[in-house]
Amino acid sequence: MGLKKYIKEVKRNFAKVIFDKRASQNVALDFANVKKIVFLRHDDKLGDMIISTILFREIKKARPDIKLIVLSGKNNKEIIEANPYVDEICEWSRASVLKNIKTLWALRKQKIDVAVDFYIFKPMLAALFILRFVNAAFNIGFNKKGYNLYSHALNVDINNTHISLRYKALLDYLGIKTDNLKYEIFLMPEEEDKAQEFIKHIKQKHKIVLNPFAASRHRTFSNVKIMNIIEGIKAQIPDSAVIIISPLRRRNSVQNLHSYYKDFVFTPMLNTARDACAIVKYSSLMITPDTSLVHAARAYNSKMVAVYLDYSNTSEKINEVWGAQYDNAISLNVNSEGSWLKNNVDSIDTQLLIDTVKELLYKQG
Questions:
Q1: Helices (H) and strands (E) in the chain, counts
Q2: For strand 152-154 and strand 304-308, is the pairing parallel, antiparallel, or unpaired?
């Protein structure tokens, strides 16, 4: 075990000793009497928040009277700020302990009936602290055997089953039967207008979004690969243009591509995560190695080519668990040939990528 993992494990064990104090409950949840429910999404992950919209919609449809509260991070709250099914958003701060205590105290005073922790491994220190402080009548977790703070733990397959089915398991437990696992991202009217205006000024018919960036360097296209993809699209797909979406910290590098390719590569100013989602919604197709935007494309049923690493030798099949899995999407997996060095999205064959884009772009329906 490496030093970082060892320190993390020590923190978790310490947190369990300090916060895992509640006597284990063997009572069933009476969902009919639940009035307030809080979801812990303080991990600040955009993709996870997008998938969570399944729950917000289906719970509100089944029980419109329930107050639905989300404890979010600074960034992922943008995904749900316009969501009509969410009654209250409380922001978890990574910088201010005092602010967090005030937030949790306000939640505690509301007398929450149910709290849901989505983390599927041993709970993090912050989650145990939150649950202990909020003191909901009933805590639900995933794969939390051995922890007394959770009133009920749902046992789920985290390695092979698609993430949406994990959320369906929660709905089933609450007694909400549905097959509607559609994600939803609601935009502000001004965000819709801004995206449509941007798209309208691109004269080419095929507006292809390229999102080259992901959370790790192995899942991020290099500058050389980006150029190769752009050149391939330019040479092989007539009447096309490339829209590169990027976080603000990467804007200077993508602006250089716009300067070089003039009226072929476009780089919109994106101030929020919803701005990026709006561009995805109104484009012709997207290429991405980033799973959060995979979920955004699925929310709008947008055409998409998703690129994944080679997970054939790992226990968690991320390309299966976090895959697109809808008709307008095609997934390409890196063939690393067992080499750690080759397990990089740059290893994907550029011609294969372009051919897949053409196949999907010209697909009817």
A1: 12, 12
A2: unpaired
Is 199 a residue whose pLDDT tops 80? Answer: yes
Read off φ and ψ for residue 208, nearest 5 degrees: -100, 115
With cut-offs at 50, 70 and 90, classify the pLDDT of residue 312.
Answer: confident
Per-residue pLDDT at 59 exceeds 80:
yes
As a dihedral over the C-alpha atoms of residue 122, residue 123, residue 128, residue 131, rounded to 10 degrees, the angle is -120
Alpha carbon 47 to its chain centroid, in Å, reads 0
Angle between helices 273-282 and 189-200 (to 10 degrees): 50
Element (H or E) spanning 125, and its range? Answer: helix 125-134
State the Cα–Cα distance between residues 346 and 322, nearest whole angstrom. 20
Q: How many angstroms separate the CA atoms of 90 and 83, rounded? A: 14
| d(C-alpha 323, C-alpha 306), whole Å | 8
Secondary element (H or E) of residue 138? strand 138-142
Determine which helix (DSSP H) or strand (DSSP E) holds 142, and give its type and residue range.
Answer: strand 138-142
Domains and CATH numbers, the chain: 3-173 (3.40.50.2000), 189-361 (3.40.50.2000)
Beta bridge partners of 207: 241
For 117-153, the pLDDT digits (tens) are 998 876 777 888 999 999 999 999 998 887 888 888 8
Q: Distance between alpha carbon 121 and the CA centroid of its chain, in Å?
A: 17
Tell me if 237 sits within 8 A of 206, measured CB to CB: yes
Strand partners, 38: 69, 115
Cα–Cα distances (Å) from 105 to 100, 132, 148, 291, 330, in that order, read 8, 11, 22, 34, 46
**Residue 355: helix, strand or coil by DSSP?**
helix
* Angle at alpha carbon of residue 183, lines to 188 and 33, rounded to 5°: 95
User: What is the reported pTM?
Assistant: 0.91
Quick one: DSSP state of residue 74?
T
Q: How many CA atoms lie within 13 A of 356 on its CB side?
A: 21
Question: Strands 138-142 and 88-91, how do they pair?
Answer: unpaired
Q: How far apart are CA 12 and CA 253, in angstroms?
A: 40
**What whole-number distance in Å separates Cα of residue 98 and Cα of residue 78?**
23
Q: Tell me which residue has tokens 């009133």.
A: 151
